[in-house]
Amino acid sequence: MDRFIIEGGRSLKGTVRIEGVKNVILPMMCASLMAETGVTVIKDVPYLQDIRVLLKLMNELGAVCEYNAEDRSLSIDARKVSKTVAPYELVKQMRASFLLSGALLGRFGDFHISLPGGCAIGARPVNFHLLGFKKLGAKVLEKEGLLSATAAKLTGATVCLDYPSHTGTENLMMAAALAEGTTVIENAACEPEIKDFGDFLNAMGAKVSGHGTPTVIIDGVKKLKAVTYTPIPDRIVAGTFMYAAAITSGEITIENANTDHLRIVMDKLSDMGVLFGRGKNGSVIVKGPKRLTAVDITTMPHPGFPTDLQPPFMACLAMADGVSFVWETVFENRFIHAAELNRMGANIRVAGDKAVVVGVPNLIGAPVMASDIRAGAALVLAGLAAKGTTIIDRVYHIDRGYKKIEEQLAALGANIKRGDDREQ
Ligand code: EPU
């Protein structure tokens, strides 16, 4: 298995460009299965592990999908899709494959997908998705780990989500797009990805409004068509590079980042002493101080502090001057990185969904292990700032959400390389 070897202590300097966001490209890929005509093209796609897994799954279903490395676009021809069964071997590799359910239900009136199961950050049930499908008229059955739904006809309904679930909102938007009549999703997720996803569906011929607000209205249409679309940039990757400048006292110019999507994160970084400026063509310049100052954060659905940026933020807090308080309200188990950071000399105490971080002047390189994408990013950042050598194992988690992050960081001056855990 691959690992990262980092010699820390260098200030990062240079420019990085942010590509399209995985967490909207995945639902867009699924939605493209609803196009009965033409070939969908999604542009500015980072060829990440999660995207490769979903492509494999979609090929299994009968779609013809291709990634063009030259122009970083993805083409999906869904005209010959015939299967509606997603096998466990692929679903278990990526929970987001459950996004296929809304698309398959919408187009074919049925799906059979292995129950995604939990992951390192929490149990992650899909009950809100299923309740919504039922409201639209689907019969849902769970047997031996397989979730099946069938509907002779989907009919619009009002669905009030218990919690503004990100993929739950997207799944219901897809099923409702081809239902008869009007669906209203209340307490919908408001992430920028939901707004972009609604715009994508509308480009396909759907009639979605209110997306990006807590009330999304979908007037069902009979057919959807293929489109060519460029997704918004990845705010979580952009935020991670902001942290990289912050934690290494560096100066990084980030191109193609939408700062409107990162307001609370940038406010917190400013409170910590990070300076922001404007560069050419709308780029943002991020300059880290000599030493960061402690701040408190509480994660929440958008526009609150994003849970995906909490683990790497904790790496910055670990080295800040003062005591910080972190409250994780979205996922019940998203502090695994804290113990790994403590292996590097951090002083973090976790009690349930809360953590107290007592900043230390230096972290010390150590062997550590990534447990999910963002916990992995936290360890990379800590390794960049730590004294000595950090070896991060299980970097396949990081590869699911960051494209060749070691190459991007090395281009900014970091001493990081990819190795193999057999090279002991
Ligand atoms: N929840 C339920 N029942 C449901 C759905 C969600 O109880 O049916 C709970 C979850 O267990 C969690 C909370 O609601 O406690 C929020 O979960 P949500 O459904 O919003 O998360 P998700 O849609 O499964 C997406 C992203 C995650 C990101 C979260 C929160 C994708 C593919 N994944 O997951 O991204 O953390 O929203 O913003 O869009 C990542 O990229 O590293 C990642 C984990």
Question: Which helices and strands appear, and what pairs or packs with what?
Answer:
Layout: E1 2-7, E2 13-17, H1 22-31, E3 35-37, E4 39-42, H2 49-61, E5 64-68, E6 73-77, E7 85-86, H3 88-91, H4 100-108, E8 110-114, H5 127-135, E9 139-143, E10 146-150, E11 158-160, H6 166-177, E12 182-186, H7 192-203, E13 207-209, E14 215-219, E15 224-225, E16 228-229, H8 235-247, E17 251-255, H9 263-271, E18 275-278, E19 284-287, E20 297-298, H10 310-318, E21 323-327, H11 336-343, E22 347-351, E23 354-358, E24 367-369, H12 373-385, E25 389-393, H13 396-399, H14 405-411, E26 415-420
Parallel strand pairs: 2-17, 3-15, 4-16, 7-8, 11-12, 20-21, 24-25
Antiparallel strand pairs: 1-25, 1-26, 4-6, 5-6, 8-10, 9-10, 12-14, 13-14, 17-19, 18-19, 21-23, 22-23
Helix pairs in contact: 1-2, 1-7, 4-6, 5-6, 6-7, 8-10, 8-12, 10-12, 11-12
